[in-house]
């Protein structure tokens, strides 16, 4: 395959900027253009719910630079695409052509507010984080809707400031992702730090205009100074309407990050991995996956084989002052196969083995280099599922996060 003369990347996201850098790393010397909608430019999102909520100085440490790479940037949102004509139209009326297109528009926060209802707070962008940080400074009480990674990080930020916070979800904290074993431990730890949990029987509705509380299906109403929706994300695919490239899950890709259209690839939170006879469709909107897919999409756009896997199952969160690092498939079902250390004391190394022969390793409050955690996951897959051992070895000296 002849390398394309020009590559257009729509989305100045982590996946998009990673793809741009990797194109140059792979030796592509042709035109590369990024269409980005945010005036802030490209920045890293994981610190928004951690460092940025704590410290205004963190705002200036997030940038993802493309300096020196001769990358053109168009600061206007993409509003339409015509993949058969190989053009993308921007909000300011420009029509940009390409030989290869990489879709990397990411996702928006899922919102629960009724049409016209004002004041809903979410956390997806730097502006969102700044707005929430300002509100945290004056809040006496808080409600967080959603007990996933983001919801628990926001609740932890509230608790750190001494703000009584209630987390509302239809399931226990992180249960759908980390399973009952770790969910129980995280719930107990968070509750000890003042985080209250309410398990609803169905979807909560925002109340007030501006928003000042939530109504639960059983008739319970909760109010607070601060209400934050952390109910997942919605892939940014409106601009692809009518193209056949996207559906409700996002843009479907294969292991090479190729879509069903020739010359069109996709990476990051906007995507899902198309299923086949042995696996279902799968979304993985995480930082590490965006990086892996960005590199894969860049190689595929140039007609080159990927230099590594297109999926990277590495996750990291911080809940109630405790770091949780994970390598491997989620969710975690049942009891762990091995436990080293003490989950109750917040210092443990755990593994789960899956029916497909792979394994997931978790550093729960343990300082474990990511390379070591990857090795543990890779070498634990042959363990017999359900066989559980427990020791109390201290963390290795000199380990890094």
Automatic annotation (TrEMBL):
Give start and end of each FAD/NAD(P)-binding domain. 6-294
InterPro entries (alphabetical): FAD-oxidoreductase/Apoptosis, FAD/NAD-bd_sf, FAD/NAD-binding_dom, FAD/NAD-linked_Rdtase_dimer_sf
Cofactors, names only: FAD
Location of the region described as Disordered in the Swiss-Prot/TrEMBL record: 378-401
Q: Where is the composition biased (Polar residues)?
A: 392-401
- Enumerate the UniProt keywords alphabetically: FAD, Flavoprotein, Oxidoreductase
Q: Which SUPFAM superfamilies match?
A: FAD/NAD(P)-binding domain (SSF51905), FAD/NAD-linked reductases, dimerisation (C-terminal) domain (SSF55424)
Which Gene3D superfamilies does the protein's record reference? 3.30.390.30, FAD/NAD(P)-binding domain
Q: What is this protein called?
A: FAD-dependent oxidoreductase
